[in-house]
Amino acid sequence: MKEKIDQFFGITKSGSTYKRELTGGLTAFLAMSYVIFVNPIILGQAGMPKDAVFMSTIVSSALAMLIMGLWARFPLGLAPCMSMNAFFAYSVVLQMGKTWQEALACVLVSSVLFILLAISGIRSKIIRSIPVSIKQAGTVGLGIFIAFVSFKNSGIIVPDEGMFITFGGFHNPNVIIAFFGILTAAFFLVRKNQYAVFLGMIGAAICGLFIRLGVSMDWFTLSESAVASLPQLPAGSPIVVPTVPMEAMLNETFLVAVKNLDKMLSADSIIVILTFLFLDFFGTATTLSAAATQVSEIKSENFEDNTRIYSADAIGSFFGSLFGTSSLSTYIESVSGIIAGARTGLMSVIVAILFLLSAFLYPVLSLVTPAVTTPAMVLIGIFMMQNITKIKWDGGFEEIIPAFLIIVMMPLTGSIALGLVLGFLSYELCMIFAKRTGEIPPVMHVVALISVAYLFTL
Q1: Membrane-crossing residues (predicted)?
Q2: Are 399 and 374 members of one domain?
């Protein structure tokens, strides 16, 4: 059996081991696990039942990762995208007035279109036509964006009236936890330990438990809200049968999208569908490109020609809409598993299994807080930042300006899609200004038009 699994995934052939795949899977799961609890909170603000979303998040993510692992055989994790669920809840439902049932139907239709683009190979052709500097700038911008968000979630940076953001201060215990984890990860990284990401999170979790112990021993005092945000060991039994969320999903969200397909012919529904498609298409393209750069053994052109990799997340979104959650996407956090040493689809299968088990063992996830995941996010940002050398800085300002806008605007606007849109449009215009119109790939003209249409939806 062990030999058959090895041959199926190509573990030995890829230079990996079972230990590295297991460690990579566990690392990726810990880095992604927050979505299990955050997604129900965000979609709950759109009126969706939180118990149902909790279970649909787990089930759809697990199915998507099984597809990625068993079919595409590539080490990536998939789950409901944080930017997409925010668009779903705040823009589509709360601002546009759509019901969450209609919004799910929009996700369903956009995912079907996404699958057709992916399986037909059109998606990979479009991505290959995007200039290298644009793609690499997207990778760098995404890395900074991820690190920025992790700094914010852990309290390292906070809002400031004068300077917009400022250092949060060490009075917040989560800042101490995050920095301790970063230093732990840095220690192992400079010593070329392939488990630096995982060990960084372990260090952060241990630090958090020590702080909680210090409070209980009256060594120092923290507010109740601060103590509640700290990692903690599960109270009582760590095993809980998820009967309630499973029944909620089956009774309240399962197949609701299908029942609302008759409302998809209105103008505003079509706009929402195309916007979902646009965000998922280019956001996932950037994430996948970033993930590919972390596997030196694979050539970028072979990666881009792999329609299975580019179809897995589209199929995942389809299942997500059926079970009751917003669009799924490849998680940049799962790159931590690749950095930890994973090289095959076995990692994705392991993450899928851990997601399913989390429905029973979710009290254990009380150890995983935003501060605990910060070391992983920071290291991902560091690895992705290295791609800045692949941008053609000597290719003229017609390539420098779009790259700069993408890198800067992604974290500053908090929108991956907007950063890409501004990069696409500025590239088109700068090439025209430079009288190099003939060098613009035909696909980029279409992308520019779509980008303009997207700006009108903001």
Answers
A1: 21-46, 52-71, 78-96, 102-122, 134-151, 171-190, 197-215, 270-292, 344-365, 371-388, 400-427, 439-457
A2: no
